[in-house]
Structure formats: structure tokens, C-alpha cells
Predict the structure.
Amino acid sequence: MAEEATVKIYRGDNDSGELVEYKIPLAPGMVVLDAVHTVQAMHAPDLAVRWNCKAGKCGSCGGEVNGKPKLMCMDRMDKYPAGEPITIRPMKSFPVLKDLVCDVSWNYEVNKKIPAFKMKDTGGEEPKFSQEEADRVQEFRKCIECFLCQNVCHVLREHNKQEEFAGPRFFVRAAGLEMHPLDDENRLGLLKDELGLGYCNITKCCTEVCPESIKITDNAIIPLKERVVDEFYDPVKKLLRVVFPKS
Amino acid sequence: MDKYQTFEYDVIIVGAGGAGLRAAIEASASGAKTALVCKSLLGKAHTVMAEGGVAAALRNVDSRDDWKVHFRDTMKGGKFLNQWRMAQLHAQEAPDRVRELEQWGAVFDRTKDGRMLQRNFGGHTYPRLAHVGDRTGLEMIRTLQDKGVHQGLDVHMECTIRWLLKDGERVAGCLGYQRESGRFVVFRAKAIVLATGGIGRCWEITSNSWEYTADGHAMAMWAGADLIDMEFVQFHPTGMVWPPSVRGTLITEGVRGEGGVLLNSEGQRFMFDNVPEMFQGDYAETQEEATEWVQQVIAGKQATVRRPPELLTRDVVARAIRKEVRAGRGSPHGGVFLDIASRRTAEEIKKKLPSMYHQFKELADVDITTDPMEVGPTCHYMMGGIRVHPETQESTVSGLFAAGESAGGMHGSNRLGGNSLSDLLVFGKRAGEYAARYAAETSSLGEINADEVQRVTAESLRPFDESDGENPYTLHEQLRTVMQNLVGIVRTDEDLRSALGKLEELREQTAKVKVGGNIQFNPGWHLALDLKNMLDISEAVTRAALERTESRGGHTREDYPGSDDEWGKVNNIVRQTDSGIEVFREPLPEMPDELKQLLKSE
Ligand SMILES: Cc1cc2nc3c(=O)[nH]c(=O)nc-3n(C[C@H](O)[C@H](O)[C@H](O)COP(=O)(O)OP(=O)(O)OC[C@H]3O[C@@H](n4cnc5c(N)ncnc54)[C@H](O)[C@@H]3O)c2cc1C
Ligand code: SF4
Ligand code: SF4
Ligand code: FES
């Protein structure tokens, strides 16, 4: 007999649901997503879960395993104590559609608010910039939109500021644009007034869960906060704004 | 039953990978009212997984490159079965399409003088792949996604299209269901672009995700469109083989592009003994020459010696690996070794191949900076697909277009790495442009046949009423085993015929497939429906493979091991007729003399 594992999976929707226990055979190297698929094939064909790449590249399979936010496809079963049940739930900060699938559409709406990249005028010349400049924004562009950071940020999770606060994922996105060597747009006013950058009190919970190891707080949020301060609270700039309101 | 929802557009794009997004951007920029429909969330299509890079003769790293060399490499890689006009347009337009991405904000890796860096890949004469570490697809899809979204496209996510609706001879719309609610929806449109990707879920060992169930291929065939080159399925030489959880997961060819070597259990670099006649003289003949090439390339110099044989085309490398394993010289889990640790420093490996490093460390407990990887072939890419006009991408059904992996012809019998991402851009744009033009020239929407909608929805719901049929997961596993064992890398008449018989049995069982639960986000139900697409397209592949009694590119016949010049002059066309799925031969279009000349020159 192959070794066996016990998983408890949330079955239900946003209004009601429960943890259902399933027993499945273990295979070497198995990840939590494999366990979910095995449950689908053996016990519950209608169990809802999202996935695509099964290699940590697409960000579809976020969930909470034993209470911790994880990509289920990168979470090895053998990291959990043998013989003890593993609990798998959907991300908590989003409405549950069914079982492990949440409604993440809010994120796509927030994204629309952030003005797209605007190319600098290079006078028809081929754009050039160094690898060092690229490195800086490439860190942010690694984001796979798993929304785990959105899931753990207390401003969303506990205070439900979805209306006023864009969340760490979109500060990462904004940083990737603001620090882009060829971008010619200014999003600082928007970050301050509409995306709620000020609500972030730098708890770093987002950075801790990011599967792409993006230093969300240190490299994206804090520099953006500094830029906002320079732009809006710098006395010289403030004076200039009074004199030349449109500059 | 509830009434279905109806939407009306000028152009509907089915699929939101690179091809679909690029098509949608173009169609909407041309003024067509455009919507994008996809099965997953936006940004999660296969394109996001592409690793190694996008091929375009930008000439940033090696000025000897140009579209002509790219064209020749592509034709040679496809063993001259490619639609030459597509290969030509692709090679000519890819550089502009890639530069355009940069204009839209994409951040590719840089050369020392600040331009887009290009890397070596199998079958490409010069370093040609613009890339971002080993996550090029992510950069590409995010760039296109943001461009599209801010252009005001409508996106219908997690909606699966099942059926194309026609009005007489032209396409009039399509029918699908919302995955979340299970509700049916009809899109009326003047033109439809299929950009649904590939068919890899028909095989057991595959790098492809749940989405690759051959939907576009099947829907086009059912609507009367021709498919082309269906016998040509690409098995990528380097998939993971251990542990079972990740069997088939891709290891980018970039590992070999960065100097990685293939070894058998005796420590021998077996690719030196596997250079086919067609490529004799093009590849390094000694270890020293191969090593020197890698050193020149790392140093950013133009290579003056020949490249390592590990960079031969994928069909060649996949067959060589299979041969080593069969001869008993494989690795412990039935693959061979891919070693980069002894070739590059740990720092370089982590910088150039970060996600490979991560993937092996997390999923296989292997540190690729110190130990070799175990690799083996994995079903990866479908060369065959919907037959399209090389310039407009229109299929043989009026108003129906196709682009990306779901379209056929561009790659002939074998695709070069990196040529897919560029294909998506070049032909995605063309499909969007010509679909919008078609819509503009069409005065009104086609009529939808309500009975047809009723029939297809009723059929789709039937699995809920079955009482003692099979579980869809079991049937899917059986299908994958049949295709893996009988229609894999190496084929025989006997195996292919046996596969046809087994597919027929599975078809009977699928007619009675049973699902439980309700219609809301029910993966079992979704899979039950996808089985039909996969069975029909598996049959199309098998019949085309049976017909082609020679070996060429991705199609190897043990009973006909050599290439046959007569077969080199024809493509197989698959069509659904009253008597079933049939194969027809079609002569290759005549190539202009100047291009023929190009293929001869070295
Ligand atoms: C791991 C991996 C690495 C790769 N690396 C490279 C590389 O480095 N370079 C390269 O050139 N190529 C690479 N490829 C190949 C390349 O990524 C794919 O061929 C390409 O991305 C396909 O793009 P596409 O736009 O045709 O389809 P996809 O990106 O697969 O998109 C298909 C879309 O169609 C939708 N769809 C499918 N069926 C339906 C339906 N019935 N209804 C509604 N929507 C539907 C899906 O939801 C999805 O949005 C790689 C492939 C893999 C798997
Ligand atoms: S650092 Fe800011 S954004 Fe990140 S979790 Fe804390 S409050 Fe939220
Ligand atoms: S920043 Fe990290 S945690 Fe947040 S969505 Fe992106 S990848 Fe996920
Ligand atoms: S399935 Fe893609 S990140 Fe897990």
C-alpha cells in the first residue's frame, strides 16, 4: 500500500461551506495541488480549483494551506508533518465563488485605474538603457498576479478598504512603471489620492508571502512613498505649484 | 432551461494568449468593436509560461543575422514543409513586432550598449532570441494585456467556447458557457479569430496545462474548416522526469543555449553522434570546439567556431534522448542528464535561469548549480492546426480566422524554439487586422440558428443525466495513455491502427460520460465536454500520421525511417466529411525562385 495523506478541503461558497475530509495516496514529490487533483479524480469531480502552469509561473493556484497563503503548485506535501491532516482553504480576503476558487475580479478593476506605460520621446532613436536600469524594474515585472499579497494585507483583509486602497500588487505595478527608464507618465497624484498609498503602514506582510520574492515594501512601496513626499510635500515644489499651477 | 445571454461584436477573439491579445489590440485599434474570450483569468494563458525567448533577426548581438537567415533556419527546422509565405512574413515582420513591444513598455534583458539582448537557441544560426531571463512569456503577456485593457477591450474571462455558429457558409457567432455560473452565452460577431492554443492534454507526459484540450482545432474542423500538418506534434527534448508530480514540466532550451550539455549514464556527450545528414558540417565536431563556442558567446563575441550539437533542432534531440534511454544508457528515472553546473558559475546560472533554479530546488530537491538535471521528452507544441491564408490568416471558412498555436502551416514539420512567441505577434496582428477589415466590409451580423443553440446546449448538459457512465477523469487518463503509447515520438502502422480502434472505444464510453454536482464551476463537467474535442483531434493526428509513410521533423515512423522526397512535396489536410475525419494530400505552394535560392545558399 502506498502511503496515505488526509486533506481537509473547503467545499462551499461565500455564504456557507465546510471542510470535507478526503484520504488520498501519496506519491514522491507531491505538491498540494496534486493532492487536490487526486481528490478530484478519486472522490469529488466537481471540486473547483484554479491552476494552469503547475510550476509557479502563472499565479492561478493561490490558497491557504494550514492557514498560510501559498501557491498550491509549489507547496510540497512532504513539508507537512506526516500523518496529520492538511487543511486547504481559498484565499480569505476575496469572496468565495466555489470551493477553492475566489472572485478576484476586483484586482482587474484596480489595474484599469493605473495609466498604462507612456513611451518617452526618443526622437526616433532606438531606445537604450542599461541592464542595471532594467534590473530595477524587472524585479517588479516578475509579479505573476497570484494576489497572495493582496490576500494578506491587513488594509484589505481586516479593514476592507477595497474602495480606497489598491493593495501591494498594484504598488508593485505602479513602481514598475514609475521607475521604468522609458516611461513618461506621472502616477504620483493618483497613488496618493486614489490608490491609497498612505494607508500602507509598512508591516511587510506582503513581502513575506510573495512567491516571486519581490521586496514589495522596501523596493516598491517605500520608494513610491518617498516620491510622493518629494512631489507634494517638498516646500520648493509646493511653491512652484502655487506660482505655476499646471507645471 | 434558462435563456442564454447574447452579446454582439464586430470581432470576437477566442483566446487571450499572445496571439489573441495581439489580434485584439489590432482589431480594436482598427475601430472594430472587439471582445476577447478566454477560459482562464486574463494573463494566465500558456504564453505566460514561455521561458526562453522570442525569435527575431534584430541583429543586436550578431550583425550577420537578417530575415533571410531566419527564414532559412525556419524552413530547415521545418524540413521544408512550412508554408513558405508564412515563414517569410514571419522572418521579415518579427523584428518590428518585438520592437513594438518595447514601445509598449516591455523590458527585455540588455546588451552592454543598452539594446535588447539576444540568446542562442536550437536551430537558429545566430543569437536571435530576445528574452527576459527565463520568463519571456510573462513579460510579453503582461505588456500585451495592459496595452489591450487600456485600449478599452471587452474581456470575458473564464468563459469556454464550445461551438461555432454559421449562417450559410460564413461564421455568425459562437456558443459557450461561463465557467463560474455554468450559464450559456452566445456571441454574435461578423468575424471570429481562434487563438486557442494547442492540444497537448491528449498526451500523458506534457508541458501543457489543462487549457490545451484542442478546442479551437476541433471547433474549426466541426465548422468545416481544413486543418493542416496534423501529424506533426513537437516533443520537447527536455522535460522533467522526476519526481512524478512534475513529470513533463518544461526545462527551457535556454539551458542548452547558455552552455548546458546532455550526457548519458556513461558520462558521454551523445549528441556528437547524432547529427543528421542535413546538418552535417553545421555543428561542432569536438568537445573543444563546442566549449570554445560557448566561451565566445558568453564573452559577447561573434562566434567563429561551430555551435554544440546540443543545439540541434528539437525533433533530433528528442529522438537521440529516446535512443539513449532505450539502449540502457539512461538516468535512474528514465531520462538522460542535462548538466549546466560544470559549465557556468552558480551566480551565472541563478541570474540567467532563475526559474529553472527555483523549479528544481523546490520541486525536485536538485540544486542545478551543483548537480545535473534528469530530463526526457515531453509533449510540447502542435505544429499542425487550422489552415489559414498566409497573409490574412483567414481559414477556409469565411469570416473565421486563426492565429498562434491553433493555426498551422508556419512551422512545417518542426518548430524552432522562440519561433512561437514571434509567430503569435506577427500573425496575431495580421489576424486582428484582417478580421477587422472583414467585419468592416460585412454589412450585418449573421443570423443565429436558435435550434442549433438549443441542440448544443442540451447535448452539453446531458452528462448530468447519465446514471451509469464513466468518470471523465478516468476516460481522460485512458485517452492520454493511448496517445502516449501509440501516437508518440516514434510511430508504426500497427500502433497507429490500434490507436484508432482504441479511440473508437473511448468515443463510445464518452457518449455516456457521467458527471455529478451542479453546473457551477464544475471541472468534472468541463472535462467531460472537452473529451469530445480531444478525441476528434487525436483521431485527426492519428489519421494524418498513418497516411504519411515517411519520417520528417516531429513525425517519425519506425517502419519508414527515412524522408521521402515525394512526401516532401505535400502537406496533409484533415477535413471532416460525411464519412468522418478524412485526410487529403495537397501539394506545397510553389516557392518563388529567389527564396529557393536562399535555401540553397549557405
Ligand atoms: C512551458 C512552456 C515554455 C515555452 N517557451 C517558449 C519560448 O521560450 N519561446 C517560444 O517561442 N515559445 C515557447 N513556448 C510555446 C508558446 O508559449 C506557445 O506556443 C504560445 O504561447 C501559444 O500562444 P497562443 O496565443 O497561441 O495560445 P495560449 O497562450 O495558449 O492562449 C490560448 C488561449 O485560448 C484560450 N482558450 C482555449 N480554448 C478556449 C475555448 N474553448 N474558449 C475560450 N477560450 C479558449 C485560453 O484560455 C487562452 O487564453 C512554450 C510553451 C510552454 C508550455
Ligand atoms: S506593507 Fe503595506 S501593503 Fe504590505 S501588507 Fe503591510 S500594509 Fe499592506
Ligand atoms: S507581488 Fe508577489 S505576492 Fe503580490 S501578486 Fe505579485 S507575485 Fe503575487
Ligand atoms: S498553477 Fe501556475 S502558479 Fe500554480
In short: The pocket of iron/sulfur cluster (ligand 3) is lined by residues A 59, 143-149, 168-169, 172, 209-212, 214, 216 (CB under 6 Å). The first strand of chain B starts at residue 5 and ends at 14.
